[in-house]
Amino acid sequence: MSLVTTLYVGLFYLATLVLVVGLTLRIVKYAKTPAPLKIPTMPAPLTEAGVARRMFREVVFFESLFRASKWTWIFGWLFHFGLLLVLLRHLRYFTEPVWFWVNWIQPFGKYAAFAMLAGLLGLWARRFLVDRVRYISTPSDHLMLALLVGIALSGLGMAYLVHTDIVAVKGFFLGLMYFSPQPLPADPLLLVHLGLVVALMLVFPFSKLLHAPGVFFSPTRNQNDNSRERRHIAGWAEQLEAGER
Amino acid sequence: MADFDVPELKEYPIIPKLKEGTMAHSAPYIAASKFQEPLGFPGELVDNWKEVAIDKMGDLLGKYRSLQVFLDSCVHCGACTDKCHYYLGTSDPKNMPVARQELLRKVYRRYFTFAGKYFPKLVGATDLTEDVLDDWYSYFHQCSQCRRCSVFCPYGIDTAEISMAAREIMDAVGKGQKYCNEIIAKVFVIGNNLGLPEPALADTLEGLEEDIEEDTGVKVRLPLDEKGADILLVTPSADFFAEPHVDGLMGYAKVFHEAGVSWTISSKASEAANFGMFIGSYENMRKIALRIREAALELGVKRIVFGECGHAWRVAYSFLNTLAGPFDFLDPRYPVPQHICEFTYDLIQENKLRFNKSENDHMRVTFHDSCNVARASGMGKMEGGQFIIPREVIKASCNHFFDMEPDSIHDSTFCCGGGGGLLTDDLMELRVKGALPRMEALKRVVEENGVTNLAAICAICKSQFAKVLPYYGFTMDQIVSVHQLVSSAIVLKGSEQEAELDGKTE
Ligand code: HEM
Ligand code: HEM
Ligand code: SF4
Ligand code: SF4
């Protein structure tokens, strides 16, 4: 096995471990931390089914963002849904045989990469052009966008300029999944692409990318409006009451 | 009139350019030890305040999912930056909701996250220093906890939750705010925010009974501590004496009278307000709320009704059951608690009240949705009932009603500028500037629809508007209570007004 292959095998195992363990720990933490008071942003749905619908609109359409800022919404939505299609399209590297619906979306996936890139650039431009957004941007915000733009550009480079041996790439990843490492083509663009992907996986559980699991745990969005009908009480508050008696 | 520049009202709202540090000098008086200690907080800044603050932050992170998730999830997208009335009114970038959160988040990052511990510069993490504490004290007392930012944030990040946590941390290190903590101490000792003792209250209520009788010829009672009454009315203490609040109280009394129910005020729970919420203290909020439970039990009432108050209604609607429940000793046919607007609305729906709307014909009225009613509680058993019900009550009692611009009402409503424990003279500049977006929206309906009056259902909003309206060229009596409109228009059975309407005058 070449040095490059060995390196990337190690990196991907490490990154997967960090991503899975890190994210699991965070999610467990969110799930275990009590929400002692009912604080949905009102008006809130009265029922749990209504909450599910609200969450769906939030995650799929970015409903609140749409109300807040049309430009951010357009760019944000282009980016995220471009990203989603790109990732689904990537499933072809990890499945054998490739799931039928992954094949269906291949043609859209090609354009999705451009949508994703356009979205990212628009979001990045805001960080320079809008004084309020400039004020709140930290170096990590810029780096995160740079990272994603880098991934998108290197990916597009492979798709349109310097092709790589996709069959070998797939062999490498299936090899990883079945714990029998296969050689990885040493094309510079591919190595850059994968290197950046590893970086993304490593920072995910430690960065603002936690917004992805976070949104589902946000009490202002995931609670329903029934505080008068049902008593809502946290474990620590019950202990507080018990201590008084 | 003021030693600061009152912002100009513009034709169309524009988002101001940043002006750093414009409000850095704004900070309320610090609570003296006699107001800190009754609440269980240290009297003055403790020596090891940094450790205490970090410990407290850790404690709160484990107790409040909102805090944990909100501190982790913000992507700095900027959607909330132009949503806060204090930013719009002051141009100070630290009044942008995300920047306000960042004051706490940068310390959270530094002490509680991997990235902040090892790469502080990269993620904007900083040590907790005296300057940071001063910034906290200043800017977490420039947030009225109105939740407008949470409406627009894609993850619902609610800066109010962050401010409450920050204030709780500051209380824990001995740097509390005088206004809130003094008031809470008073509630514990006397029973209401004003320190109004029982005999004075009895006097006041008697005076109001006489006023109503003089006006209408009907003896409408305002009972105090009456055992066995059906309904306990819990209302903000400003209703007992301040204008226009007291006109609202007479309105509730007339509605109860017409409904033929027995009701009472309690001298023990003679205060709907619960400033425990403003300082983020579950324990203090609970202690205050328990007074209501105790009063209800002692008086043996069957229902609890709340008067017009915004944050009190949040504590009542959203938290009371949690804090002081279960209320299984009350009549299960009615929600616990009920809002006076719900009570009046139901009677209107059943056609049980008679109104002579022309009594209010000298007014053209608009309605100010109070933040805590609009974005933190509900009314009726319907989504958005808190927008519909008060408006229906207003429309039942007056002929001319006009809404303000859609992006300044309902859940997009702008804070009056004085909520969240900021209704104090030492924050006058902030209060005036923070009222700007509401004043601009008001100005538009004044010009376009000839609106003369602004109605509200919150004691803080009413006091705040009475104070700030004059800064913007309006007059203080333009703010009215919703039940003041009801009070003027309602036609009591057997009253002089009824006789006149039915042509029975001699
Ligand atoms: C449940 C899934 C997700 C939801 C609902 C979601 C939603 C959002 C929203 C509403 C924004 C703010 C608007 C914007 O700037 O686009 C945002 C920002 C962002 N999201 Fe996501 N997201 C999700 C998953 C992800 C994932 C998996 C990634 C990672 C690759 C990601 C990366 C980002 C980045 C980098 C930003 C900041 C963009 C900027 O700098 O302005 N998101 N997300
Ligand atoms: C282990 C994971 C990944 C592997 C093996 C991988 C591999 C590849 C390969 C081989 C291509 C070239 C496709 C072609 O020639 O047609 C590509 C393209 C691309 N990749 Fe990745 N990639 C991975 C993860 C990601 C991630 C996480 C992102 C986004 C955040 C991403 C974004 C893109 C984009 C935008 C393109 C160009 C458009 C397309 O062909 O879909 N990749 N990737
Ligand atoms: S809660 Fe209201 S006052 Fe506080 S930051 Fe948000 S918008 Fe501003
Ligand atoms: S809208 Fe929400 S995620 Fe965006 S900057 Fe404001 S608080 Fe952060």
Q: How would you describe what is shown here?
A:
- The complex is a heterodimer of chains A (about 240) and B (about 500).
- Chain A is globular and about 70 Å long.
- In chain A, about 70% of the residues lie in helices and about 0% in strands.
- In chain A, helix 1 packs parallel to helix 10, helix 4 packs antiparallel against helix 6 and helix 8 runs antiparallel to helix 10.
- Chain A has about 240 residues and is mostly helical.
- With about 500 residues, chain B is mostly helical.
- Chain B folds into two domains: about 140 residues, Fumarate Reductase Iron-sulfur Protein, Chain B, domain 2, CATH 1.10.1060; about 260 residues, no CATH class.
- Helix content of chain B is about 45%, strand content about 5%.
- Chain B is built from 23 helices and seven strands.
- In chain B, strand 3, helix 15 and strand 4 form a beta-alpha-beta unit.
- The mean pLDDT of chain B is about 95.
- Classes of the chains: A mainly alpha (about 240), B mainly alpha (about 500).
- At the A-B interface, helix 1, helix 3, helix 7, helix 8 and helix 11 of A face helix 2, helix 3, helix 5, helix 7 and helix 9 of B.
- The complex binds protoporphyrin IX containing FE (2 copies) and iron/sulfur cluster (2 copies).
Helix content of chain B: 40-55%
The end-to-end distance of chain B, rounded to whole angstroms, is 52 Å
Q: What's the assembly state of these chains?
A: heterodimer
Separation of the first and last Cα atoms of chain A: 69 Å
Based on secondary structure, the structural category of chain B is mainly alpha
Enumerate the spans of chain A where pLDDT stays under 50 for 5 or more consecutive residues: none
SSE string of chain B: HHHHHHHHHHHHEHEHEHEHEHHHHEHEHH
Going by helix content, strand content and strand pairing, the class of chain A is mainly alpha
Q: What is the CA-atom radius of gyration of chain A, in angstroms? A: 22 Å
The domain tally of chain B reads: 2
Average pLDDT for all residues of chain A: 95
Radius of gyration of chain B: 23 Å
